[in-house]
Fold this sequence. Notes:
Mean pLDDT: 91
Number of helices: 15
Protein name: HEAT repeat-containing protein
InterPro entries: ARM-like, ARM-type_fold
Organism: Rugosimonospora africana
GO molecular function: oxidoreductase activity
Strand content: under 5%
Amino acid sequence: MDTGHVARDDGGMPEAARTVPELIAEALSATQDGDEDRRWRAVDDLRAHGDAWHAARQLCRSPEPARRELGVDVLARLRTDPTRPAGEGPSPESVVTVLLDLVNGERDPGVLRAVATGLGHLRDPRAVGPLSRLRAHPDAEVRGAVVFGLLGRPEREALDTLIELSADQDPYVRDWATFGLARRSDADFAELRDALAARLRDPDPDARAEAVHGLATRGDARATGPLLDALDGQWNESDPSVIEEALSALAAATGDPRLTALAAERAADPDRD
Length: 273
């Protein structure tokens, strides 16, 4: 899932003081060439311009999807630039309003992905409902962007959407949604635990590891068997620390002697392979 580009640490000044129209043309040319790095460099420079707000809103009204997507990417990052003085540019609320206006009528998957990702960066609770309504979108990347947009949201509607998407047919969407339930939320209720338990035998080992972690940190013994299997090397995830954290949490919560012994063994040998 593309959750957006990290800006260059260049002081926020546009390269060679190019104008907004020049930077828009550069970004669109890069899009046509398939050069994502060049496109994001242009976006970085665009957001340093005080009048980029007006240009980005105009782009969002374009009949061309590539222009609308560019407008969204610029808008969503105007207020995330740490070099922008607090009194300059649009308020976060006004940016969110523009993005929300796009959601209902937009049909292009690329634009919807950009909107959902942008709303995730802006963290406005008004986005929860519109994003949740995109959870059944046929494009897996849109559904993945919905997950990103809802990560860390405490609202029950957001959590219910993540629960549904944790069973998505796309493994990347499942993994991110399970991560959102397991490690980006402190919520603890039966439906959430059951959704995590349903992923304990997921064919994707990363989704499985997230489920183990989420149940373990909630003291749910259903994680014990899969956790022991992982510790025994029967399956491997991309981030072993997830399983190590799960072991510590579940051993402390349940007092299971198998887990406490393994936790003590690992604590005594932190440099093991």
